[in-house]
Specification:
By secondary structure, the protein is an alpha/beta fold. The protein has helices spanning 28-32, 34-48, 69-83, 180-185, 264-282, 300-305, 307-321, 339-343, 348-361, 363-372, 374-379, 382-385, 396-418; strands at 2-8, 53-57, 87-91, 111-113, 120-124, 129-133, 157-163, 190-194, 200-203, 208-211, 227-234, 237-245, 249-257, 286-296, 324-334. The protein has three domains: 2-247, Metallo-dependent phosphatases (Purple Acid Phosphatase, chain A, domain 2, 4-Layer Sandwich), CATH 3.60.21.10; 250-336, no CATH class; 346-420, no CATH class. The radius of gyration is 27 Å and the shape is elongated. The mean pLDDT is 86. This is DNA repair exonuclease family protein YhaO.
Length: 420
């Protein structure tokens, strides 16, 4: 007997995407609806491929529902699967733990949610499958849940569903930790894991242990292709598994190497090449792109001083190419000539640069400057004081960063006057 099933996780349905309004020109509706459309794509794939069942390994929701429409949308999609004869096995994760969700709706008969108090086993005689799982009772579960999962049921394909950080993953809380050896020792055929948003195969065979990643990136820290894993079973064994894309909006970092760029036009041409390559892999999806302009470049001073000009040229390029939104531009270039070399030239400019460099190392002077900026700090509007690029004149590191900008400004104007 041959069949397939789908393993998905970390859907975060109706994730609120806080702070999106601060991005100028952001495609707000497309981003807000992205998790729903991606979930529809998941259900469409299950029906199209006539899969035996769907496994959801936690974080179906992104916290308590704002209203019942989130739950009703989920029910509507489960009803579609019910009509297609497809069962669904799901557990709760840290974002949709039992203690977080205050609103409830009766689930259709094809949906089986596992207990949050102890591991349970669901047997499907039609497909000769035994599914084992346990959800999160609260947001922070630091106990090793896997150790109490039952031994395999002989004569069945055994699947374990677990929301876990496994051995620990950067950027993810250490929830329900366990080792790969521990999972292997249960002698299951497949472990359907959730919690980690980056696709990762921890063990290829006997058993396959897989994080499918989330089905839709929600911000710039979740870049690249997002989707689910479709697993193929033959004669009671895992034959193969593969990734299937589901995302409708793709977040990407676009690295633009400006090391060979003499002018702004050169930088834009390199940006065009990199952006067109990203668009080719996006398969028609809307791209949300953060540009990183990097490298030791002759155009460094122009790029840093004329940042608004750079940003708007990149936005214009995105409009020209189409289906691209510029989320942010980070200029990370450096000078071709080091500051030490410039200081050794014994010119008036070198004297100014040496003074600025000495200020960075003088804590007393930095404290005096912070005191001078106190009134400005208090007067700044909230949006300028907060966020990744906010002005915080209560920290000396802010002054040091601004002094670097002053250096770039001086060198830019000298080069412009000299016709360099």
């Amino acid at each position: 007997m041959s069949f397939s099933f789908i393993h998905a996780a970390d859907i975060h349905l109706d994730s609120p995407l806080k702070g999106l309004e601060k991005y100028e020109g952001a495609p707000v509706e497309e981003i807000r609806n992205a998790t729903r459309v991606a979930f529809k794509n998941l259900v469409n794939l299950a029906i199209e491929k006539h899969v035996a069942f769907l496994v959801i390994a936690g974080d179906l929701y992104d916290g308590d529902w704002k209203d019942y429409y989130t739950g009703l949308f989920f029910i509507s999609q489960m009803t579609r699967l019910q009509k297609a004869g497809i069962n669904v096995y799901l557990i709760r994760g840290n974002h949709d733990a039992q203690s977080l969700i205050t609103k409830e709706l009766k689930l259709p008969d094809n949906v089986r949610e596992f207990s949050v108090h102890q591991p349970e086993t669901e047997v499907d005689e039609q497909w000769k499958v035994a599914v084992h799982g346990q959800g999160f009772v609260s947001r922070s579960v630091t106990d090793n849940l896997a150790k109490d999962y039952p031994e395999r049921l002989d004569g069945y394909l055994n699947i374990g569903i677990l929301h876990t950080s496994a051995t620990g993953r950067e950027g993810h809380e250490n929830y329900a930790p366990c080792s790969i050896e521990e999972l292997v020792s249960k002698r299951y055929d497949y472990w359907a894991l959730g919690h980690v948003h980056l696709r990762e195969v921890l063990h290829e065979h006997n058993p396959a242990i897989v994080f499918p990643g989330n089905i839709q990136g929600r911000h710039i820290r979740e870049t690249g292709d997002k989707g689910c894993t479709i697993v193929h079973v033959k004669d009671g064994q895992i034959e193969s598994f593969e990734h299937r894309s589901l995302d409708v909006l793709r977040w990407e970092i676009c690295d633009v190497d400006a090391s060979l760029s003499e002018t702004m036009d050169d930088v834009m041409e390199e940006a065009r090449l990199q952006l067109e390559q990203l668009q080719q892999t996006a398969d028609g999806r809307l791209l949300a792109v953060r540009f990183h302009i990097i490298g030791a470049s002759p155009a460094h001073q122009s790029l840093t001083v004329e940042k608004d000009h750079v940003i708007n040229n990149l936005r214009s390029l995105a409009l020209e190419i189409g289906n691209v939104w510029v989320e942010k531009v980070k200029i990370k270039t450096t000078r071709l000539i080091g500051i030490d070399h410039l200081q050794e030239q014994h010119t008036p400019v070198a004297t100014i640069l040496s003074f600025l460099e000495s200020v960075k190392e003088d804590e007393d002077t930095l404290e005096l400057l912070l005191d001078e900026f106190k009134d400005i700090q208090n007067a700044l509007p909230y949006e300028l004081k907060n966020g990744e690029d906010g002005f915080d004149f209560t920290e000396s590191e802010t002054i040091k960063a601004r002094l670097k900008e002053v250096e770039n400004l001086i060198l830019h104007h000298i080069q412009t006057k000299a016709g360099v």
